[in-house]
Amino acid sequence: MWIISSNFLLPDSITWHYEGKGNYTAKSGYWLCHSMEAKSYPSSNSRLVKWWTCMLKLKIPLKVQVFVWKTCQDWIPTMSNLTWMGIKADNRCLRCENSEELTLRALWQCQKLWKIRAGWHSKKASNR
Predict the structure, then answer these.
(1) Mean pLDDT in the chain?
(2) Could you tell me if residue 118 is inside a domain?
(3) Whether the predicted pLDDT of 13 surpasses 80
(4) Looking at residues 22-48, what average pLDDT do you find?
(5) Do you know which InterPro entries this protein is assigned to (predicted)?
(6) What per-residue confidence (pLDDT) applies to 60?
């Protein structure tokens, strides 16, 4: 897998993608805030709020919490997500090459991944 580099030698810059010219303005910030309030997000559900509250109180590393949060938001860079973001990539699973690599499939459903995990578990058991 690779990312094709640009032919333009432009320096990196921070842009605000909610405004046409890429500059943050109070107006664009207000518009974003107002549009987010108008949407009904599933995370506002009281059961989910309780779940996330419990999750954040667990004594687990922050990187694990962030990974769980990114997984639930579908922010894991799977081949399908990379393709959706405009990166030239084959969206099929790199392990089995059978179907589209979605987050759920990449983490839990791929049959080749099950075989890899089975190998880890057998090595762990033999080391005891």
Answers:
(1) 78
(2) yes
(3) no
(4) 71
(5) RVT-Znf
(6) 92
Residue keyed to tokens 């094709």: 4
Helices 46-57 and 62-72 cross at an angle (nearest 10°) of 160
pTM given for the model: 0.51
Pairwise CA distance, residues 12 & 49, whole Å: 37
pLDDT at 50 over 80: yes
Nearest residue to 74 (alpha-carbon basis) of 47, 113, 49, 105 = 105
Mind listing the pLDDT tens digit for each residue in 54-82? 888 999 999 999 998 888 888 888 888 88
Rounded distance between C-alpha atoms, residue 73 and residue 3, angstroms? 23
């580099």: which residue's tokens? 5
Match 């973001």 to its residue by tokens. Answer: 85
Domain around 99: 76-128
Neighbours of 91 (CB within 10 A): 15
- For every residue of 4-73, which 3-state class applies, written as one string? CCCCCCCCCCCCCCCCCCCCCCHHHHHHHHHHHHHCCCHHHCHHHHHHHHHHHHCCCCHHHHHHHHHHHC
